[in-house]
Amino acid sequence: MVYRYRFSRPFRTDSVVCLPDDAKFFFDDVDVPFGKVSVDSGFEFKLELLDDDIVFGLGEAMGGINKRGRIYRSWCQDEPNQVEDKASLYGAHNFILVHSPSKNENFALYFDYPGLVTFDMGFTEHSLMSVRIERAALDLYVIKSESGALSDTVSIFRRMIGESYTPPFWAFGYMQSRWGYGSESDLTDVLENHRKHSIPLDAVFLDIDYMKDFRNFTVDGGKFSDFERTIRKLSEGDVHVVPIIDAGVKADVNEDSVCADGVKNGMFCRKKDGSLFSAGVWPGPCHFTDFLNPEARRWFGSFYRMFTDAGIDGFWNDMNEPALFYSEEGIKKLASNVKDAFSDEKNAGRNLWRVKDAVLAVQNSEDDYRSFYHSVDSETAGSLAESIASDGKALVRHDLVHNLYGFNMTRAASEFFSENVPDRKILLFSRASYIGAHRYGGIWTGDNCSWWSHLELCIRQLPSLNMCGFLYSGCDLGGFGSNVERDLMLRFLSLGVFTPLMRNHSALGTREQELYRFGGTEDFAAIVKFRYRMIPYIHSQFEKCVSESKMLFRPLSFDYQEDTAALEVEDQLMFGEDLMICPVYRPNATGRTVYVPEEMTLVRCGIGSGLDAGSPEKKTVGRGFHHIKCRTDQIVFFIKKGRKIPVCESAMNSAKIDTKKIELW
Ligand code: GLC
Fold first, then answer.
1. What gap in Å lies between CA 231 and CA 505, rounded to an integer?
2. Nearest 5°: phi and psi at 223?
3. What's residue 526's pLDDT?
4. Helix/strand/coil for 488
5. Confidence class of residue 213 from pLDDT cuts 50, 70 and 90?
6. Which DSSP category does 13 fall into?
C-alpha cells in the first residue's frame, strides 16, 4: 500500500519514478495515517512513539541503526569533522521506517522535499518524533507492506525510486587511493608495490593533484608527459585509473576554457541581480554549474569525454554538496566582525571566541547558499519558484533545493555515459546525494577518520544506505583523516571485504596507509585476497539485490523480526541471502561477542585456511550470545543453516578470477 500526500505544488525532484497501480493520491489533506500533519506554519509531521518502537532509515547519517534519541538535519553538508553529535553528513536521505514490535506493525515514510528537513527522533520529547520543513510544499509517501515484513516494506519503497546503479565488475575489486596521487610515477609506484607484495589491485585513484592548478577537466602536463599512455600502461596490467571531478569550475574566463564556455552559454548559477555566483573551493573562486537545468547537465557531462576518450572508465564526483569554502561577501563580513571584536580593547580577549566562530562560519555558510539561484521550468519549480521570467523559466533559490545538487552532478555524468559510451560500463560514485542519485551512481561516505568509532559508524550506515537504494557504497577504508594504526587498518579492511566499494583512501598529511606500508604485509595481502575469493558471491548477491529491490546489508531484525534480542543488535549485519557478518571494531581485541539468532555455521578464515587459499575452519554454533575469537589476521562470519556460498580461488585482479573453479562453503 502506497499513499501519496501532496502538499501545495512540490518541486519535482525526480526521486520517485514509479508508483504501484493501486497507489492512492491525496492533495492538501492533513489526515495522514499513523501521524498528525500540520501545515499552519511550514510543515510538521508528529508521531507518538512507544517505548520499544524502532526508527530505521535516514541513509547516510550519524547515530545508530535505530535513529531514536537524536536530531538529524537532512542537508548535504561538507563535513570532515564527523564527531558524535553532528546532525548532517554529505547525503540527504529522507526515508524512515518505523517498527512497532509490541503492535506487530511497521510502516515507512518518505518526505520528498529537496531543502532542509529536520528530524527530531525523540530528542526533545522522548516519545515524540517530529519532522519539520520550512515550506509546506512536498510529497509525503506512506508505505505499508501486506506481509508486515520489514524487508518487504523497504522493497516497496525501493521499487518506487527505481533500480540501483550497478558498477562494472572490476569495481568490486580492491582499489587504492590517496589525496596526493597526481602523477604518472605515483600511479606506477602504487601498482609496482602492490605487485611486489602480492596484494591484488583493480584500480588506482587520482585526486585533485592530477589537475592543473586544481581546475576541472585539465591534466597537469608537468606530471603526466603522456596521460593516455599512462592509462594504457596501467590498463595493460588490468588496473583502472579513476580521476576525481569536482563540482566547482574555476572562475577564470580568460585562462579557463571550461569556464569561458560555461559563461558564454549561461551554464552557471547566478545571483538575484543576474551576476554570476562564485565561491572558493580548491582552485580558488569557482562558478557552479546549474545541474538542475538539463541543458547545463548535458554541457557539464560532455567534458567527461576527454577522459573516456583516453580510456578512463571510472570517476568519483566530489565537493558537490556543493562545498563552499568562502565567498567574497563572507570574507568581507568576517573582516568587519574581526575589526569590531578587536576595536574594543577591553573585551578583546573575550571576543576572541566570537572571532573563532565567525571564521568557521565563513565556510559552507547559509548566507551563501541563499544567495544564488537555479533556473528551471516553472512546472519543475512548483511553489518554490521565486519568480517566473517571460520565457517560462522559474528562479529557485539554491538553499530550497540544496540537496539535489550532488544528485544532479552525478546524473550529468551518468547521462553523458549512457548517451555517448553506451557500450562501456563506467564506475561512478559521488560524495553528496539525495534519493534518486542511487540510479546513477554509488556513494562513498566522505571524510571519516582513522578512528575505531568511524569503523563502527560504517557498519551502522551500510544497512541504512541500502534502504535508500545506495548499494554500491563504502567508507574510506583505514579512515581519511588522522593517522591509522596497523590494528585498525586490518579491521577496516576486514569490513571492506564485504562492502561493494572497497577503497583505501586517506588525506594529505596523514600517515601513509597503502597496505604495503605496514609490517607483516602478508596479513593485509591475505585479507584482500579473501575479498577476491568472495567476489562471485558478493557480485551475484549485489545483482540480485538490484533486480529484486532488496538490501545487501540488513539489520538482524530484518531476518529475525520476532527475536527481541536481534532487534537491538547494531554491530552485526546480515549480508546477502546467506551470511551474517560480525566485524571487530574495538582496539586490541582478539575477538568479540556475537549474537547468533539461530543455529548457524561459524566460518573462520586465516592465512592458508580460507583467506588466501584452502578451506576455512567451520563449526556449528547454536542460538545465543557467544564470545568468538577473531584475531586481526582472521575473518569470521556465519552461514545460515542449510545454505552454501560459492567461493573462487584468489586472483591478483578481477579480470583473472576464474569463475569455473568454484568451491562451495
Ligand atoms: C575532499 C574529499 C576527499 C578528497 C579531498 C581532496 O575532502 O572528500 O576524498 O581527497 O577532498 O580532493
1. 20
2. -100, -25
3. 98
4. helix
5. very high
6. -
